[in-house]
Amino acid sequence: MITLFVYMGIKPYKIFIVRFTASHTQKSADPKVVVNRAMVLLLQTTKFSVLVYRGLLLFFLGICFCWASEALHNIRGEFTASKISFYTETAAKFWISFCCGVASVTVGLLSPCVDSKLGAYDAYNKEWSSVLRCSALFFGFSHATARIDFATYSQLSLTAIGLSIALWWVFDRSLVGFVFGMAVALIATFIFQSFVWKQLYRFSHPMMAAWLPCLFFSGGVVIVLVGRQLAKPDVMALMQRKVK
Predict the structure, then answer these.
(1) The whole model's pTM is what?
(2) Cα–Cα nearest to 136, from 62, 42, 68, 232
(3) Which residues, other chains included, contact 231 with Cβ-Cβ below 8 Å and sequence gap of 6+?
(4) Do 190 and 97 fall into the same domain?
(5) For residue range 185-227, what is the model confidence (pLDDT) as tens digits?
(6) Does 125 reside within a domain?
(7) Which domain holds residue 127?
């Protein structure tokens, strides 16, 4: 995670350097004490604390999206472990939730940086109400694909593609959101398909592979919108006041 912060251009702060240098003059022999002291002083830096808060919110949001989607799609069984045991099922759910959280943090923190590099400041005109409506539509889309029985594979695929593109067009319409959504869809679908190929998981219904990329694409668009809202100056100023 720290490597991601450095990649995003988060430079060391003078306050942190001065405080850590002053505290390090005590020459503590225990490296654990030095590391703990450095982390405490780093968290005291306001901008870094705001970044940590944003990362934590995005991480838990990704986990909540994963759990909600899993609960909705359990109507059709979702994924079932090929070797049924409590350990493998629990470990698989944990790692899937963790990966969704990490992906949410990555997308939510990188998308505002890409927007600033490209000068796409018009993307920040959205309000929280628009983000909430987009999230509600995402869960509605997820619930509909789980409950409705489609006649053919192509019908389900076209419906899922149309709904996911409509969600992006109505609430985002930005190139950054589309690219991040496509990247999330391709990477996540490849990972899940590799699990199926290695017989770690199997689809309980063959049509699940049709809406899976569209579901990941829609989730990526929602996370991009949330990441932009958290990166807005007024939200960051509110977080800074709470940190202080």
Answers:
(1) 0.71
(2) 68
(3) 54, 112, 124
(4) yes
(5) 999 888 878 777 776 666 666 667 777 888 889 889 999 988 8
(6) yes
(7) 57-243
